[in-house]
Amino acid sequence: MYMPKSFVETRPEALHGLIRDYPFATVVASTAGGVVANHFPLEWVKGALHGHVARGNELARMDGAEVMAIFQGPQGYVSPNWYPTKAETHREVPTWNYAVVHVRGRLKIVEDAIWLRALLECLTDHHEAAEPQPWHVGDAPDDHVEKLMQAIVGIEIAVEHVEGKFKLSQNHPERNRLGVIAGLRRRGGAGDASLAEWMAKLEEEKS
Fold first, then answer.
1. What's the CA gap between 105 and 141, in Å, rounded?
2. 26-77 pLDDT tens trace
């Protein structure tokens, strides 16, 4: 990944935080037939990523393969009109702000039913937490859960390398960064509020 120094993010809490808040990953692998990409949620668990795929998925036959999981956080278009310096110099152009984390590691296929049941419970409890009456795996009949589990396999990616790129206008002066935050909040498009919040949090950490 192209990584200008201004945008490098190495803090574990920031990297793990993005994975926690944006768990839907793109998992890329190289096969004899070419590069393949699959999309499913992953959980960070003590130096590994855990998830599951259908038995028919090509990843289910790729035990030991090297893969990359890509997690994309908030992102959005940035207008040069949001920079105060644009009015002074007219030397600003549009760009795109975003935050991403790439995780590389070795794929392991897990068939153990106890492991898989625990994963399903973990994923469900995580994503049901905000519901007024959270649904739990145990709410479904055991025979139904067991039947469905036979159609999937567990995925474990032993993490070997993590890199984060948080492109949040760090290469601009403070007044331009604040202008972008204000512009995002004013526009209010899909994801704009989240991107503005991430930028504002970065400003707070600098102060």
1. 35
2. 999 998 889 999 999 999 998 999 999 999 999 999 999 999 999 999 999 9
Amino acid at 125: D
Distances (CA, A) of 153 to 59, 116, 156, 158: 10, 8, 10, 16
Torsion of CA 130, 114, 40, 62, to 10 degrees: 170
Q: How far apart are CA 75 and CA 160, in angstroms?
A: 26
Pairing mode, strands 8-9 and 152-167 = antiparallel
- Selected from 3.40.50.300, 3.10.310.30, 3.40.50.450, 2.30.110.10, the CATH number assigned to the domain covering 5-115+152-206 reads 2.30.110.10
DSSP state of 131: S
- Write the CB contacts of 160 (distance below 8 Å, at least 6 apart in sequence): 104, 105, 106
| Nearest in space to 106 (alpha carbons), one of 145, 59, 39 | 59
Q: What are phi and psi of 46, to 5 degrees?
A: 50, 60
